[in-house]
Design a protein that fits this description.
This protein is α/β, with parallel strands linked by helices. The longest helix has 26 residues. It is globular, with a radius of gyration of 21 Å.
Length: 378
């Protein structure tokens, strides 16, 4: 049921539009994928996500494995059934959380990873085969191979050793996936790793392209300078199969989206707009201006917004901006009213959905670089 078709290639860069087809519907790319960690985007209903216009969401294998468990989810009909979201869904492999949430308590060997639950410290083990089995039972349309995630500071020898292990795990993921996916209900992404080293990124890109994955994920390196991450992704993209869709993991800053769409990335996922919403950060576009320190967002919880009669963003067409003032929303935060989280999350995700619509339209007109310049010139 899976396919990916490129619809238009920008004339002046690698940006492109396309369509990912799954058994639960289509995803027009480039697309931002909201994170629904535990089969829910925090503070919003599926109906609200559809009202905004999102095409897909991404859930977390690690957290769903621990609670309520993949067996329970399978018995209840799978992720789409239990969550009320009947459009395409992604699940990550669980590898990032297994390693990042356990720190030194995580024990890695060539076969897999031993870790403890972040809920009750119970002992568990993930292998590539286990990750595929769990993701099969969760039932998402688009899933990821199991890989090892390293700290950004990892040195060359550590990264090289990890990459060899990751490649072995991804081969095993692919073998197990093919055993489980005889009905073709799911598609599997291989993941390019290699840390901050260009030659290892090239090696990984060539290796992943040589295997029969349906699609390709790229593990980004988080942190500064951002130019380093852009250069590494650009390096990898030279050696990846152009016809396959590319997903960049954990990217959500506005400037990052523009930079990576320009390189040919099709989809992104990130907790940024929803997590920052819960702290009172509002995303806004070029019409509202910007500052170098906090580009494209401001904090509504500051006292200066107490009596503000303006909407969150001038010219925004979302439900929140049409109906509520900054002053009222500031009050909801100070009063600890739960409605605050719903309304701010709604606005922030509407911002990202609208941004991606503009990007797709600009690519179709061969005007992407002009749009990028307009947004990032401040």
């Amino acid at each position: 049921m899976f396919s990916f078709n490129i619809k238009h290639q920008e004339a002046n860069c690698e940006a492109r539009t396309g369509v990912i087809k799954t058994s639960h519907g289509e995803i027009k790319t480039p697309a931002f994928i909201p994170v629904a960690t535990k089969a829910t985007v925090k503070a919003l209903t599926p109906q609200q996500l559809e009202e905004i216009g999102f095409q897909a969401i991404l859930s977390n294998t690690y957290h769903l494995y621990l609670q309520p468990g993949e067996e329970t989810i399978e018995k209840l009909g799978g992720l789409q059934k239990i969550s009320g979201w009947h459009k395409p869904m992604f699940t990550d492999s669980g590898g990032f959380q297994v390693m990042s949430l356990n720190g030194k308590l995580c024990k890695i060997d060539d076969e897999g990873v031993d870790f403890r639950s972040c809920i009750n410290c119970s002992k568990h083990r993930f292998t590539p085969e286990k990750s595929m089995q769990v993701q099969r039972k969760l039932g998402a349309d688009l899933i990821f191979a199991f890989d090892q995630c390293l700290e950004i500071e990892a040195d060359y020898e550590t990264t090289k050793k990890s990459l060899a292990r990751t490649h072995a795990w991804e081969e095993r993921s692919l073998v197990e996936f093919k055993k489980l996916n005889k009905d073709k209900k799911q598609a599997l992404y291989g993941i390019v790793q290699g840390g901050r080293f260009k030659d290892l990124r090239e090696e990984s890109a060539k290796f992943i392209s040589s295997l029969d994955f349906d699609a390709i994920g790229i593990g980004s390196i988080f942190g500064d300078p951002k130019e380093e991450s852009i250069a590494l992704v650009k390096q990898a993209m030279q050696f990846l199969t152009k016809e396959k869709t590319k997903h960049l993991l954990g990217i959500g800053a506005v400037e990052d989206i523009f930079n990576y769409v320009e390189l040919g990335i099709d989809t992104f996922d990130c907790v940024l707009p929803t997590r920052l919403a819960r702290s009172g950060y509002i995303f806004y576009g070029t019409e509202s201006g910007g500052t170098e320190k906090n580009r494209f967002r401001y904090k509504l919880t500051h006292a200066k917004f107490k009596d503000d009669k303006e909407p969150l963003e001038q010219g925004c067409g979302c439900y929140v901006c049409k109906n509520f003032t900054r002053g009222y929303l500031h009050h909801l935060f100070k009063a600890k009213e739960l409605l605050f989280y719903t309304l701010i999350t709604y606005h922030n995700l509407y911002f990202f959905k609208t941004l991606m619509d503009q990007i797709r339209e600009s690519i179709e007109k061969n005007e992407f670089l002009q749009l990028k310049e307009k947004w990032l010139q401040n």
